[in-house]
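Re: that chain you flagged

S.,

Sorry for the slow reply, it's been a week of failed gels. I finally had a moment to sit down with the sequence you sent. For the record, here it is as I used it:
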Amino acid sequence: MENKNIKIKQEAYFEKKVIVSSFLLSILVIYIHANCLKEYGLQDNTMSTAYWTVNFIANGIGGIAVPMFFVLSGYLYFRNINFSYDIKGQIQKKQISRIKSIVIPYLLWNTFGMIFYMSIPRIPFVAYMMNGSYAEISLKNIIKGIFLHEYYFPLWYLKELIILISLTQIIGQILKNKKVSIIILSILAILGILNINLVILKLTSVYFFFLGSFLGTYIQRDFEVKKNNKSIIYYLIAFIMIVSVRTLSYDNILVRSLYLISPLFLWRMLDVFTEKFNIKPFMKQSFFVYCSHIIIITTVTKILGKIVKSNNEIGIIVNFLLSPIISLMVIYLIYKFLIKYLNKFYCIICGNRR
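Prediction finished late last night. Pasting the structure tokens below so you have them in one place:
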């Protein structure tokens, strides 16, 4: 009975950590797209305080958010797979379920983004505020917009996730053998360090998804159990060092190597936040936050950019720090409206996530 209670508590903690982690990662993605350095011509100004502040948060910390999403996706996909019987059948059921939870939302959000960028920027005032031109309406652009996220670029993650899910029957067969899995994971890591990419998706996406799949198959207990506070401090120090190296250094083998292990340190560090958070309904809407944020953060950043001058470094930093908070508030209001008046529609665009 005692062991059963411990397992129940561990499961509850893991579920809470996944919710908290996903929500915080979605906020980090907003900070990636809040990077306003280019707007002020500071993207190469290494003497600027704003340059280092924005890069540390947006690229250093934020750059680990999507890899962590891939790791979690792979982990949760294979976490409950029983390799002792009918692996193909189990994976097929998961693939079918992902049509509703990922493929349909991907197509709908892409369609929304395409319609937005083909129509709204035609309004002169909006075009001025967004500093952009509208997309031409053509069959080619419509196909690229709906299926290849041409106008809604943050959904590259979902596109690559869909491709990876289509390959999970192969991944499942590899995972049946632990030694073969380790060899494949090592090869993917080496190719990632060498900066080699595939034609249809990033090789690092394959690596992180496979890493999560491997952890979900063979290292569940160690991955899910909360570490003691002393251990978390060590992970925190290591994580800060990794982020600092990624921020201070140019692209090289060391930076790429640290990039490949960074989600593991981030996952451990997230234990600090999991304990402190009280789960609210909106915190479970990380998918909606991720899919809806780009137009909002772009608009907010542009508006604040019209107010803050390029010679005001404190203002630029405030713009960067404040715009995601404002955007999250707007997203929350949209979420409340949709839940109240268009609940079924909301469920569809979020893959039946509640």
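What I noticed first: The mean pLDDT is 90.

Talk soon,
D.
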